[in-house]
Amino acid sequence: MYYQTENFKQPGTNIFHPRLAWMLYYQQVKSVAKVCQKFGISRKTFYKWWNRYSKSGFSPNSLIDESRKPHHSPFATPQHFVQKIIEAKLQTGFGQRRLRNYLIENYNINLSERTIWKILKQNLVNHEISLENSRVTPSMKQPGDEVSLGIFDIEPFIKSKEYILYAAVDRVTHLKISKIYEEPTSINLDNFLGLITENFPFKIKKLIINEHSAFEGLNFNHFGIQIIQQEQSSTEIFFIDNVFFKDEEKFFTENVFDSFQQIVKLYNRYLNEYNNHKMQPSLNNLTPLQKLRTFEDYRAVQYFEPIPID
Fold first, then answer.
1. What letter would DSSP give residue 240?
2. Residue 75 DSSP label
3. DSSP string of 148-207, one letter each residue
4. What is the helix, strand, coil percentage profile of the chain, to 5?
5. 173, 291 in Cβ contact below 8 A?
6. pTM value?
7. Tens of pLDDT along the chain (310 residues)?
8. Is residue 147 a contact partner of residue 170, using CB atoms and an 8 Å limit?
9. What is the strand order of the sheet 206-209 is part of?
10. Read out DSSP for 266-282?
11. What three-state secondary structure class fits 253?
12. Cα distance between residue 126 and residue 46, in whole Å
């Protein structure tokens, strides 16, 4: 979640984690006791992160939790094999025995049935996809049943004009359409609503919005979409923080832009990468496109590009 405390703002830096506030406050007051009291942490916790922060040359990235997974596993199945196994499963619906023969014949991938089963279990077992049958059941939510609409102010990252990012994310596939505008006007929002209704490969049935001044007085009727205004519940906040704008924060902080046209071009390139190639932990390591293709009606979709790069 994006976290920024004005009193502790380091010049030219956006605070990504509350731990940076500890560090900056300590540099102000020079008292570990005051830091621990203010933020409700132990001395042991503070020194653990202070040592990591100082040894990194005071890099904010050192304050992010590190993965506990081993950095290298010599016996792990290559990731491109895993990707082919997942794709083959979603395309054919075969069990591991038939899938093993299919992989050998089509991709020259020779793995045991148990290895294939383990890979599928780790990547595809959830409430929506079965190892025995990947067909859609009538009770499952479908693409377009619920699409969340959000507004992201990117001016703090650009430090220029009042740029705004409108984004719509399908709750089932996490397929995303978003567009950057130079100002947050009702005309631009109306334009964006037209964009998503025309370019999502499915019909939007419900559009979930939160309480935001930009939505006041906007007429949604002519789009033929049911609008649901949803309060910021813990579930909605988690979805927004971890699916909606998590990658956007990383994109805008890691790039330097010379012009609005360059922002748009680089962002659209990122958006296409996100939709078509970036595996999502929230989708059991499928890409949004792959998730879309688990549904029978969308198996033929090969690529999703609602907004051209150029």
1. I
2. T
3. EEEEEE-HHHH-SS--EEEEEEETTT--EEEEEESS--HHHHHHHHHHHHHHSSS---EE
4. 50, 10, 40
5. yes
6. 0.54
7. 233 333 344 444 444 467 888 888 888 888 888 888 888 888 888 888 898 888 888 888 888 876 555 555 555 778 888 888 888 887 777 777 888 888 888 888 888 888 888 888 777 644 334 444 444 444 468 899 888 888 777 776 666 667 888 888 998 999 999 998 887 787 888 888 888 988 999 988 888 876 666 666 666 665 666 666 555 554 555 555 556 667 777 788 887 777 878 888 888 898 999 999 988 877 888 899 999 998 888 988 889 888 776 5
8. yes
9. 176-181, 164-170, 147-153, 206-209, 226-229
10. HHHHHHHHHHHT--BGG
11. helix
12. 38
Which amino acid is residue 216, in one-letter code? Answer: E
Buried b (16+ CB within 10 A) or exposed e, 92-128: eebbbeebbebbeeeeebebeeeebbebbeebbeeeb
Q: Do 130 and 149 contact (CB within 8 A), yes or no?
A: no
User: Six-digit token pair at 227?
Assistant: 């609008």
Alpha-carbon torsion (231, 150, 245, 15), positive or negative: negative
Q: Could you identify the residue written with the tokens 């296409």?
A: 272
**How far apart (Å, rounded) are the C-alpha atoms in residues 273 and 267?**
10
Residues 282, 284, 288, 293: is their CA dihedral positive or negative?
A: negative
